[in-house]
């Protein structure tokens, strides 16, 4: 019995400092344990919200489990993020309700916004924060509104989900009055979208006017951000 004991000690010591492969005879040199196949854990500790704020276990491109700080994981999520703007004036006809075609993009991480049509098409289902601002070149002498619309996947149903629309203010002008309203409109909301559904921004105007556009795009612009 003593003879067997002394034979096992070197073997156990060797195994303690060697790589172990399950389902493979060629373990990866960067890891101590290499599993070629599915892994099942029968007992585990339930993580808390506090633990998730610190770090999360992820697989890298080699399949190696690593701990990554939560802030880094969130910063690298493949989510939608768009900012588009008007770099030139955009004409609105009398009594029209038209899509504003923000013609230039500051960024569009997943190429989901089309400046030629003014539509944003969601690649994935989720909840999106949607906002926009417009500014006219002068005081509006009539009713003016900015709305956010959601269009279904088939493109057959448009639903208004948010709007800002100012009623005219009558200003005395000599013996008569003139109806005017402020030159800016802004709108913001959260929208739940399915993959393939669209978002657009529409302007309603009771009179013909022009939306202000410039190189920096600070007058008229829109933003779309996937929040979950």
Describe the structure.
- The protein has three helices and 19 strands.
- The strands form six sheets. Strands 7, 9, 10, 12, 13 and 17 form a six-stranded antiparallel beta sheet that branches. The protein has a five-stranded antiparallel beta sheet with strand order 8-5-19-11-16, with no helix packed on it.
- The chain is elongated and about 95 Å long.
- It starts with a helix and ends with a strand.
- Largest sheet data: 6 strands, antiparallel
Strand content: 35-45%
Cα end-to-end separation: 64 Å
Look at the structure and give the mean pLDDT.
Answer: 83
The tally of strands reads 19
What sort of overall outline do the alpha carbons produce when their principal axes are compared? elongated
What are the segments in which pLDDT stays under 50 over at least 5 consecutive residues?
Answer: 1-15
- Order of H and E elements: HEEHEEHEEEEEEEEEEEEEEE
Q: Please bin the fraction of helical residues.
A: 10-25%
Structural class: mainly beta
Quickly count the helices: 3
Rg computed from alpha carbons, rounded to a whole number of angstroms = 30 Å
